[in-house]
Amino acid sequence: MEHIEQLNYIKSPVDKVYKALTSEEGLKQVWTSILKVKPEIGFINEFDFDEGYVTKMKIVELEENRKIVWECIASDEEWVGTGISFELLEKEGVTTVILKHFNWKKKTDFYRWCSYNWAMFLFRLKDYCENQR
């Protein structure tokens, strides 16, 4: 199995970063504007990227201000069955975000493209959390 891992440092309190990753307001700013999100274990978040299908992520773990884990149950064929986690740690006003997209069946061009896009996701998350008024 293959895994994507990305890391970013955000000059923002961990609770603000956690809220951005678990709320419609935050995820609209950093991922897609067409979505249904609820911070509740078992809830199935829906993300529409206008690609002819809806990406569905089941929330399997939530540790407030520490960890979020999703299981992909519907999306592009290569995503189904993978998991995505966000691990958060705040130190001296800076939140470290470790993003992992795990259990890929193999390394493909789509995998590589997604790795790039996850880095861009973390860049937008950083920008949103640090510059939101």
Automatic annotation (TrEMBL):
Q: Which CDD domains match?
A: SRPBCC_CalC_Aha1-like
Pfam families with a match to the protein in the record: AHSA1
Sequence ranges assigned to domain Activator of Hsp90 ATPase homologue 1/2-like C-terminal in this UniProt record? 12-129
Similarity remark: Belongs to the AHA1 family.
Protein name, per record: Activator of Hsp90 ATPase homologue 1/2-like C-terminal domain-containing protein
Origin species, per record, is Sphingobacterium paucimobilis HER1398
Please name the taxonomic classification of the source.
Answer: Bacteria, Pseudomonadati, Bacteroidota, Sphingobacteriia, Sphingobacteriales
